[in-house]
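User: New here, any thoughts?
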Amino acid sequence: MTTPRLPLPRRHERTRVAIDVTVNGVLNFVEGRITDLSEGGARIDGASMPARSRCEIHYGGQVVYAVVMWSEVDRMGVRFPYELTHGPLYNALDRARVAALIDPAQIFHGRRTVTFGRRGLN
C-alpha cells in the first residue's frame, strides 16, 4: 500500500500581474497575458499548449524558457527551469510586488496638486 503524496508548498510567492507576452511553441507564436507570476513560474491566459511541452516566453527583448505543467482551452501554467533573477520580466514582477504594498489611495494622493476648489483656484 502506498501513501498519497501531499503537495509541496510553493517556494515563491505568486503575484497578480497583467503582462502581455508572446509564447513561442514548437510550430507557432501565440499572444498571451501573464496574470500570475513568480520566480518559478507563471499562469498565461489566452495561450494554450500541450502539457509537458517546452516553450519560450518573449517579453521586453528577453527570452525565458518554460515547461507547460498544465493546460486548458484558453490558459496554461508554466514552470521556469531557471528561476527569474534578472531581466525585464523579473523587473515587472518586482514592480508589481512593490505596487501591491502601496495603499491605492496613496498612489493617487501623491500625484494630486494642492489647489482650492474644483477649478484649482488659489
